[in-house]
Amino acid sequence: MLDEPFSSLDAQLRMQVRDELHRVLRNAGVSAILVTHDQSKAFGFADRVLVRSEGAVVQEGNPEEFYRTPETPWIARFVGASNFIKVNDMIDLVPDPSRVAHLDPAAEILVRPEDVSISIAEDLGTNAVIEEAKFAGNHMDIAVHLKSSGTPLRLMAGRNTDWYPGQEVSL
User: Fold this and answer.
1) Which of 74, 103, 121, 129 shows its CA 20 to 30 Å from the CA of 33?
2) Is the pLDDT of residue 150 over 90?
3) CB count, 10 Å around CB of 70?
4) Using CA atoms, how far apart are residues 86 and 88, in angstroms rounded to an integer?
């Protein structure tokens, strides 16, 4: 059992030690239990992930299943940045509205920040306004709100454009 084994290491060393330990355990055919509160550590290390809440197992599966198809909204939020968008709002965002038009208009759809494309192409029209744009190393973290409903969304964008608060964009 490994209980928060990397917590006192700086970021670069933590990645190196985690990767080396993962390689050693896999090559030796040894199973281990990693206890952590850092989802990225768990996803980068594990073949299988188990999440417990209040003593009960909430979901078990491989890391990609957790991230792409969480069983509950709580799991979705727990394992990563999440946008929950009402079907009514999705109709304004998807290229083919018929893909969501048959769903309950009040239902919410999980959309991860990296799955939202942002553009300043004015010929497309604009449907969102940037509230905040923060440099995050290899990308920009951007907060927007939809013009039609005011629904807030978080997304990631490339650093090759100057994003700024108040800018009208197309998602």
Assistant:
1) 74
2) yes
3) 21
4) 5
Q: What is the pLDDT of residue 101?
A: 78
* CATH code of the domain made up of 83-169: 2.40.50.140
> Buried b vs exposed e over 147-163: b needs ≥16 C-beta within 10 Å?
eeeebebbbbbeeeeeb
pTM of the predicted model, to two decimals? 0.78
CATH architecture of 2-71: 3-Layer(aba) Sandwich (3.40)
User: pLDDT tens across 84-132, in order?
Assistant: 998 888 877 777 778 887 888 888 999 999 999 898 866 667 889 999 9
Rounded Cα distance, 46 and 136, in Å: 26
Name 104's bridge partners: none
Which two tokens mark 143?
């907060």
Please return the burial class of 57, using the count of CB atoms within 10 Å of its CB with bins 0-12, 13-18 and 19+: exposed
- Residue 20 CA: distances (Å) to CA of 23, 25, 34, 46, 154: 5, 9, 14, 13, 33
